[in-house]
């Protein structure tokens, strides 16, 4: 099978999962975080189902294959350090998630539903990533002489 | 109010997990939307094509479900300004935090990555606190 067709179908599976699970719905996500109010614990089950399959499946994949089908090697995150960028970044992400009720993985599939709120959020996320990328190259990595 | 949907959520979660496993088995990649999305934002990464295809598929699937006549519950209970501010913070956060719930929460924890455990614990905590403050301190 063509590599791009494969990526399209796997992305489709991801989007279907986001839609079926309820992650696609910001109201549901915000209710998950509102234990003191209109709590909806459904998202625990999303994570449970996702982790059960991914944990088992990754072990099967890494146990049986030296390399993925379409590439010469698995591209796994090399970073190991638990540093301030990780903790502060995650903390800021959580605040934004709590304000908007959307995360990147939910908002991209939600574009397919055609509501006007979604592209506004996605545009803001892209602006944030661009700003952060600029700030990181500008301030944290000294320019090569 | 939103309905408690343990079975659909478990099924949907399993589909997300299956997508992550297939992306690793076939493409050798982590199915984190932050990483995939970042590669198609200019200057695009050299392997932007599979990322664009993944994103196109992720958008097409809910659209097809709706076209097939199934309803997908969707409601945004916050004002537009909250989407803009929240989205901007999400973008900054996922860049420095190296991922979001799909990358850290599913793929990273499934790999037992210590970074992902720290990231997930941190962003869940700040999200709970943020929603509590907005709904019960400011809005309460």
From TrEMBL, chain A:
InterPro entries in the record: DUF6691
Keyword field contains Membrane: yes
Superkingdom: Bacteria
Transmembrane segments: 43-61, 82-100, 112-132
Pfam family, one: DUF6691
Alphabetical UniProt keywords: Membrane, Transmembrane, Transmembrane helix
Protein name: YeeE/YedE family protein
Record organism: Mesorhizobium dulcispinae
From TrEMBL, chain B:
Superkingdom of origin organism: Bacteria
Chief location of this protein within or outside the cell: membrane
Presence of the UniProt keyword Chaperone in the record: no
Transmembrane segments: 6-27, 48-68, 74-96, 117-138
Membrane topology: Multi-pass membrane protein
InterPro entries xref list: Sulf_transp_TsuA/YedE
Keywords: Cell inner membrane, Cell membrane, Membrane, Transmembrane, Transmembrane helix, Transport
Location in or out of the cell: Cell inner membrane
Keyword Transferase listed: no
Family indicated by similarity: Belongs to the TsuA/YedE (TC 9.B.102) family.
Protein name according to UniProt: YeeE/YedE thiosulfate transporter family protein
Highest classification ranks of the organism: Bacteria, Pseudomonadati, Pseudomonadota, Alphaproteobacteria, Hyphomicrobiales
């Amino acid at each position: 099978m063509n590599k791009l067709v494969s990526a399209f179908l796997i992305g489709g599976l991801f989007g279907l999962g986001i839609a079926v699970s309820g992650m696609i719905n910001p109201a549901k996500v915000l209710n998950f975080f509102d234990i003191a109010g209109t709590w909806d614990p459904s998202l625990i089950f999303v994570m449970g189902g996702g982790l059960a399959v991914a944990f088992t499946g990754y072990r099967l994949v890494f146990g049986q294959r030296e390399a993925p089908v379409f590439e010469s090697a698995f591209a796994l995150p090399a970073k190991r350090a638990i540093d301030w960028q990780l903790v502060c970044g995650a903390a800021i992400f959580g605040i934004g998630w709590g304000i908007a009720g959307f995360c990147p993985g939910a908002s991209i599939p939600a574009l397919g539903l055609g509501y006007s709120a979604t592209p506004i959020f996605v545009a803001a996320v892209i602006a944030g990533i661009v700003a952060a990328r600029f700030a990181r190259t500008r301030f944290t990595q000294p320019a090569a002489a | 109010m939103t309905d408690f949907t343990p079975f659909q959520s478990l099924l949907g979660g399993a589909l997300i997990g299956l997508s992550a496993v297939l992306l690793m088995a076939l493409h050798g990649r982590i199915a984190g939307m932050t990483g995939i999305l970042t590669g198609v934002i200019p200057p695009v990464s050299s392997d932007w094509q599979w990322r664009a295809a993944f994103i196109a598929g992720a958008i097409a699937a809910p659209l097809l479900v709706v076209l097939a006549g199934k309803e997908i519950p969707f409601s945004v209970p916050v004002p537009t300004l909250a989407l803009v501010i929240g989205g901007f913070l999400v973008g900054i956060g996922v860049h420095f935090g190296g991922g979001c719930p799909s990358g850290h929460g599913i793929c990273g924890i499934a790999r037992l990555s210590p970074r992902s455990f720290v990231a997930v614990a941190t962003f869940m905590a700040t999200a709970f606190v943020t929603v509590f403050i907005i709904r019960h301190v400011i809005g309460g």
